[in-house]
């Protein structure tokens, strides 16, 4: 698989009418998500501290579940993580939703769905890629594992869908736990 195989995806996503965020959240950038339907492969750019929202404790400018990545069940998924925050280290892992939210890393809900240095976080502009198969179907959180960050709102949603035909990004209602 080459990067070229993902080149058409932003136009496809626009054609699928990605729902722009409304209200207090930023717009969803279609460049964050690319996919290859025949290969059942998707790639998502996860950017920690993209904006100053919530003291930069956000992913792609969203906090408290205000963004949902939907991936069809069984698709090969790559989440390219980058820490854009110039001050704080961050990490990411896929966890099962729980209330209250954990204050430190927990076991990932999907094998291999976590970044390096989960507890201490990656420094500014450091990157890592999570590679996993999106299964089983269900609702998950993409959660910062640095102690206190996820519980303070640094999480978005991942929906592994048995009915979705293609990956998409959706603005969703932010909720505090």
Write a structural description.
The chain has about 180 residues and is mostly beta strands. The protein has a single domain, classed as Immunoglobulin-like (Sandwich), CATH 2.60.40.420. It contains one helix and nine strands. The strands form two sheets. The protein has a five-stranded mixed β-sheet with strand order 5-7-8-3-9, with no helix packed on it. The longest helix has 7 residues. It starts with 8 loop residues before the first helix and ends in a 6-residue tail after the last strand.
Topology:
Elements: H1 9-15, E1 33-36, E2 41-48, E3 67-72, E4 76-83, E5 93-95, E6 127-133, E7 138-143, E8 155-161, E9 168-171
Parallel strand pairs: 2-4, 3-8
Antiparallel strand pairs: 1-2, 3-9, 4-6, 5-7, 7-8
The number of helices is: 1
Structural class, from secondary structure content?
mainly beta
Order of helices and strands: HEEEEEEEEE
State the distance separating the first and last CA atoms: 39 Å
The CATH topology, please?
Immunoglobulin-like
Radius of gyration: 15 Å
What features would you highlight for this structure?
four-stranded mixed beta sheet; 177 residues; Immunoglobulin-like; five-stranded mixed beta sheet; mainly beta; 1 helix; 4% helix
In summary, what is this structure?
The chain has one helix spanning 9-15; strands at 33-36, 41-48, 67-72, 76-83, 93-95, 127-133, 138-143, 155-161, 168-171.
């Amino acid at each position: 698989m080459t990067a070229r195989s993902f080149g058409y995806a932003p136009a496809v996503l626009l054609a699928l009418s990605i729902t722009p965020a409304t209200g207090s959240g930023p717009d969803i950038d279609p460049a964050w998500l690319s996919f290859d339907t025949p290969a059942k492969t998707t790639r998502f750019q996860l950017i920690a501290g993209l904006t100053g929202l919530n003291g930069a404790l956000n992913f792609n400018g969203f906090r408290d579940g205000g963004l949902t990545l939907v991936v069809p069940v069984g698709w090969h998924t790559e989440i390219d993580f980058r820490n854009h925050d110039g001050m704080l280290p961050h990490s990411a892992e896929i966890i099962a939703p729980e209330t209250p939210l954990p204050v430190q890393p927990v076991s990932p809900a999907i094998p291999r769905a976590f970044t390096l240095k989960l507890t201490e976080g990656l420094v500014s502009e450091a990157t890592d890629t999570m590679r996993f198969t999106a299964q089983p179907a269900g609702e998950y959180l993409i959660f910062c594992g640095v102690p206190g960050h996820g519980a303070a709102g640094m999480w978005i949603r991942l929906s592994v869908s048995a009915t979705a035909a293609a990956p998409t990004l959706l603005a969703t209602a932010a909720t505090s736990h």
